[in-house]
Amino acid sequence: MNDLELTPPVFAILSSLIEERVGLCYTLQDQDLLVSKLSPRVLDLGFGSFLDYYHFLRYDPEGEREFAALVNALVVNETFFFREFTPLSVLVRDFVAPLVKSGRRPRIWCAACSTGEEPLTLAMVLAQHGLLDQVELIASDISSNALTRARSGEFSRRSLRQVPAPHLVARWLSVRERSVAIDAELLAAVRWQQLNLLDDSAIADLGPLDWILCRNVLIYFRDETAARVVNRMSRQLRPGGVLLVGVSESLMRFSTELRCEEHSGVFTYRKGPE
After folding, report:
1. What is the pLDDT of residues 44-67, one digit of tens each?
2. Same domain (yes/no): 156, 237
3. Quick check: pTM over 0.90?
4. By residue range, what is the domain housing residue 46?
């Protein structure tokens, strides 16, 4: 039973540490949520208070390793195959296919991919258009647990709770009684990588990109943090490159060099020419 109390001052320093390192923003309204995520680790490690746990994370040499483990409990792994499917279809048809036809090998990054259903859905669409082997597809997440699940190629049946493209399911997924397995060809087409979106150097190391998906992620960041991430990403886009965010997200409130455009009802953010 959890009888630890998270006082407002300790909540303030703990939530600030989390935001400083990974960008996730917890307000006072989220205090109970944070307690539910932190308590198991605090108790399992034998700390008598959240303050002791904070000092361990902040100052102990082993704190970095524990923080990496804590991230797995903090992140939201809410994703599924074919989520917001139309934008993926439009962007492959209107952006990727023309680039390939022009002789380019597009480089695409799915940022904060969670357990991998998004990049694997994208891989299905690319394969449908005969483009999978002509594109470099990178998928990253901060959670090592999420990436382990993605690399396994095994998913729960909940990952198929929406099926707008049954022909793709029939071609690329093995649907079992309690699980779903992805075709090995698609799994191997994705380069999986652990990456913190606040790590500017790690993003820079990805090299020039033609297309970035960062969907349903920025909503967990404070505006200034989200703007920093967007600006870092925009620097990685080649001229004419595109950033795609979630359908309920908008970058219009940020100062960014990217230009909002509409394509077949899908809003994208494009980098202008040099």
Report:
1. 999 999 999 999 999 999 999 999
2. yes
3. yes
4. 8-74
